[in-house]
Each structure stands twice: as structure tokens, then as C-alpha cells.
């Protein structure tokens, strides 16, 4: 097979990455706006229950990702990579756009959360088919000795998608005002904007050509007749799928979502940091750490994938509790010296005035405590505005956690591609990736938050879930994965007889 020219590979990476970034953007604005969605689409009365219901809906999108991986993975191995992940982009963009049009719970009652759930499931199915297609497509254009470097550009898109979603949300919030964004229709604009981004990406992807490896297989008549059966119905290949899940993607998934999404939720809900400041902390940390996806992807071409990925998991297991404890301590005002206490009136909704106490501390920290009384009871909200020095300490702590993500996520696309043969690669790699990320990783915010509501737990108790999963994956990966790249690489498969395949051994 002729090697893709340097200029050609960069066009391929750009076209693949833009579409994948937009899909991640679409998927994550739901999570970034979870507190507002909870108020809009679920019954009022118990904010914690509404938030958990929203997080459960958010998690549902992750749970169905493996089914999307099976459906679209099979499609990709049968008809090709290009058309399959073009279809996933259309489904994702349409679902996101429609979420922005759904009337609130007050208007249509229980239809609102049901429609949100349906569209969220479609998003999950689409994302289940997108990542495997994009990663496979780029990898099959890349030379083996630089596969980690080139596929790491696809890996950046997940974090950049989160970053772009936060930029758009904060930008719209500033443009329309906090009142309109939170209580009016301003929150809808980030969802509606996605349709423009998707149309641009579709135009770019329509110009792409099929993967050369898949094209060669198709011309030779060697494409799989039944990718699902070949992927999971044969003992040796199914063993590879299980090893990819329990030795790599499961731990990678919980590291990804703990370091970025749960960190965001923790800073907002446990540390009570003011909304814009909390999200700016996450954004700056993402910006600082994102280049390291490329660094660790490139290093995996020289050092192998295993050691880098497992080291990132080990850092998460050892450091999550101390880091989150430090985040909480930085925002804690109980030991600070008070300068002034001022009673002010804050605006809630269009008419109601809510009294609030504004406390200034000697280090420049400001605490706002507002109390609302309604038919459902008394609700107290706290909002902490950090001083500049404390804010940067938080940024560095979150940056450190995102570096863990870059270690486990940067090399993993190349790692998964190299585990499976071309004819069933899309199907085989997509399932363990989306179970590890969609189920184990995607459930982190929901399970961790749920654990903290159990009597006898504290604000750090939710971390035992990702720590436990990462530790298990660390042990399995350490014992059974190989660090030698060449032992994973295979682009050919020999059919020895009906139902028998010759596969690489790890």
C-alpha cells in the first residue's frame, strides 16, 4: 500500500478532527448546562433530585454508546469509514439542535424530560459510531512508526470539544445576560448554534476519500461479511476485546471524566465557586494541558503505549483525593478573617427579590449567601468568588489532573487500532472504547454525586468509584498488556478455516 503523503495526512486529520470536535461539543454542552437543564426539564421542588435526574439523563447518553459502537462499527466495516461517520455527524447535530427547541416542563409536563432523554440517547448512539470511525480512518492513513503522533490529534478533540462548549456557553451568557441565560431562553443558543457547525463539517467530510486500507480490502473482496460475529464470536479476538476494556479503556474512561467533568461539577457544587469563575478555571486548565495529548501520543511511538497510559492511571489513583481535598480547602471560607458583612437584594426571576449576605474576607475572597423561601421550603445558595492567587492555585491543580488525561488518552487510539485487524477494526475497537468511556467513565459524575448523598459520606467519598475502577484497570493492564508496539500491529487476517482466525497474541 502506498503511504499517504505528508500534506495528505494533515488534510485527513483536519477533516476528521473538525467533525469529531463538533460531535464532542454537541455531546458536552448538555453536561455543562446540567444545572439549568435540571430546572427547565424536570419538576421543581427538589433541586438535588432534579440534578441527579439530569445527570442520569446525561449518563444515559454514555450507556447507549456501546450499542452505537456495535451498529455503526458493523456499518463501517461493511460499507466503509467515510460514509459511516458522516452519518453519525448528521444524527448528532440534529439531536443537539432539537434539544434547543424543546419546550420546558412547565409548558408540556413530563413530555419534556422524555423528549430530552430520547434525543440524548440518539446523541449517545451517534457518538458511539463517530470516535471509532475517525480514529480508524486517521490510523489507516498513518505510517506505523508515527501512528501515535497522528492519532493523538483526534484525541485532542474530546477535550477541545469541552473547551469550546464552555467558551460558547460563557460567551452567550455574557452576551444575553445572566437573567436571560438562566431563566429565559439564552441557554438554548449553544444548542441551536451546533447546526451551523455541523453543516460546515459535513461539507468538509463530503470531500474526504475512503481509507486506503479499507479500499484495498474491498477491491480484493476481503472485507468482513459479519464483523460482529468475527469480532466477538471468535475466542482469540474476543479475548483482545476484553483485554482492551479491562486493561486500558475502563481506567482511561474514569480518569478522563474525573479530571475534567467531575472536577467541574465538584468546583461548582461542592466548592460553590461562582459559575463563570469555575468554568474559566476549567477552560484555562484545559488550554494549558491540551498540547500534551500530542506529546504523549508522539512519545508512545518511541516508548510504547502501555507504560504511559498506566502511569497516568497510577497518578489518578494516588493523587485524586489529595487534589480534590486541596480544591475544597482553597474555596473553604470557614477559617478566613471577615472584613465586612453586607445585606443586599438579589434579583431572581422577573419579580421576586431575594435578600443575600455579602461577606468580604481579608484575602480578597467574597462569599454571597442567598436564602429563598417558597412553598417547597427554604433554599440557601452559596457562591464563592476566589481571589486571583487562589484561582491560579485551582487552575494548576486542575491542569495536573488533565495531564493525567493526556497520558491515558493521548496514546489510546493508536493502541486500540493496533490490537485489531483491518477487516473488523471499526467494530472491535469501538465496543471496548465506548464501554470503558461511555459506561464506566460517563457514569462518574452521576455515581460520584450519588455516593456523596449517602448518610455517613463526605464530599470526597464519590472519588472511591473512579479510584477503584482505575486501580483495577492498572492491575489488569500491568499484568497482561504488552508495551511492545510491534506485538499489537496487524493489518492482515488469515482465514484458516470456517470460524477460525489467525490473530496476534498479547
Residue share in β-strands: 5-15%
What is the level 1 CATH name of the largest domain?
Answer: Mainly Alpha
What is the global morphology? Answer: globular
Helix content: 55-70%
Uncertain stretches: 485-506
**Architecture (CATH level 2) name of the largest domain:** Up-down Bundle
What name does CATH use for the topology of the largest domain?
Growth Hormone, Chain: A
Give the CATH H-level superfamily of the largest domain: MFS general substrate transporter like domains
Count the domains: 2
Question: End-to-end span in angstroms?
Answer: 26 Å
Give, in order, the helices and strands: HHHHHHHHHHHHHHHHEEEEHHHHHEE
**Helical stretch count?**
21
Biggest beta-sheet profile: 4 strands, antiparallel
Largest beta sheet: strand ordering: 1-2-3-4
How confident overall, as mean pLDDT?
82
Structural class call reads: alpha+beta
Number of DSSP-assigned strands: 6
**Cα radius of gyration in angstroms:** 23 Å
Amino acid at each position: 500500500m502506498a503511504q499517504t503523503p505528508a500534506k495528505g495526512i494533515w488534510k485527513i486529520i483536519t477533516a476528521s478532527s473538525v467533525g469529531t470536535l463538533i460531535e464532542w461539543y454537541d455531546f458536552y454542552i448538555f453536561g455543562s448546562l446540567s444545572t439549568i437543564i435540571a430546572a427547565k426539564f424536570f419538576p421543581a421542588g427538589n433541586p438535588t433530585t432534579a440534578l441527579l435526574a439530569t445527570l442520569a439523563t446525561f449518563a444515559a447518553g454514555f450507556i447507549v454508546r456501546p450499542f452505537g459502537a456495535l451498529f455503526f462499527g458493523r456499518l463501517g466495516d461493511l460499507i466503509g469509514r467515510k460514509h459511516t461517520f458522516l452519518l453519525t455527524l448528521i444524527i448528532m447535530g440534529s439531536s443537539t439542535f432539537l434539544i434547543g427547541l424543546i419546550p420546558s416542563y412547565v409548558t408540556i409536563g413530563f413530555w419534556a424530560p422524555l423528549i430530552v432523554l430520547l434525543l440524548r440517547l440518539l446523541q449517545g448512539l451517534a457518538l458511539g459510531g463517530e470516535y471509532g470511525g475517525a480514529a480508524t480512518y486517521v490510523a489507516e492513513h498513518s505510517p506505523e512508526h508515527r501512528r501515535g503522533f497522528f492519532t493523538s490529534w483526534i484525541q485532542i478533540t474530546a477535550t477541545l470539544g469541552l473547551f469550546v462548549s464552555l467558551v460558547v456557553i460563557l460567551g452567550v451568557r455574557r452576551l444575553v445576560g445572566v437573567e436571560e441565560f438562566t431563566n429565559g431562553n439564552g441557554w438554548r443558543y449553544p444548542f441551536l448554534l451546533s447546526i451551523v457547525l455541523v453543516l460546515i463539517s459535513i461539507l468538509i467530510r463530503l470531500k474526504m476519500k475512503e481509507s486506503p486500507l479499507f479500499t484495498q480490502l474491498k477491491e480484493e473482496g476481503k472485507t468482513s461479511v459479519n464483523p460482529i460475529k468475527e469480532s466477538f464470536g471468535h475466542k482469540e479476538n474476543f479475548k483482545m476485546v476484553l483485554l482492551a476494556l479491562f486493561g486500558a479503556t475502563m481506567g482511561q474512561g474514569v480518569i478522563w471524566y474525573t479530571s475534567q467533568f467531575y472536577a467541574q461539577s465538584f468546583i461548582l457544587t461542592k466548592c460553590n465557586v461562582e459559575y463563570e469563575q469555575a468554568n474559566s478555571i476549567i477552560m484555562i486548565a484545559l488550554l494549558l494541558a491540551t498540547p500534551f495529548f500530542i506529546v504523549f501520543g508522539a512519545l508512545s511511538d518511541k516508548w510504547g503505549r502501555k507504560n504511559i497510559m498506566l502511569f497516568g492511571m497510577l497518578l489518578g489513583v494516588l493523587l485524586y483525593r489529595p487534589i480534590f481535598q486541596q480544591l475544597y480547602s482553597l474555596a473553604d471560607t470557614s477559617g478566613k478573617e471577615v472584613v465586612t458583612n453586607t445585606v443586599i437584594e438579589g434579583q431572581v426571576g422577573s419579580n421576586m427579590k431575594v435578600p443575600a449576605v455579602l461577606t468580604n474576607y481579608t484575602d480578597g475572597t467574597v462569599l454571597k449567601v442567598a436564602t429563598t423561601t417558597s412553598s417547597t421550603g427554604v433554599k440557601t445558595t452559596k457562591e464563592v468568588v476566589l481571589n486571583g492567587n487562589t484561582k491560579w492555585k485551582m487552575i494548576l491543580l486542575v491542569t495536573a489532573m488533565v495531564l493525567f488525561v493526556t497520558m491515558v488518552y493521548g496514546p489510546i487510539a493508536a493502541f486500540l487500532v493496533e490490537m485489531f485487524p483491518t477487516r473488523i477494526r471499526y467494530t472491535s475497537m469501538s465496543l471496548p472504547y465506548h464501554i470503558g468511556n461511555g459506561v464506566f467513565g460517563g457514569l462518574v459524575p452521576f455515581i460520584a454525586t450519588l455516593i456523596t448523598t449517602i448518610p455517613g459520606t463526605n464530599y470526597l467519598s464519590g472519588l472511591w468509584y473512579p479510584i477503584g475502577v482505575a486501580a483495577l484497570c492498572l492491575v489488569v493492564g500491568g499484568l497482561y498488556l504488552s508495551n511492545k508496539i510491534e506485538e499489537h500491529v496487524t493489518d492482515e487476517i488469515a482465514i484458516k478455516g470456517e470460524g477460525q482466525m489467525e490473530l496476534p497474541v498479547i
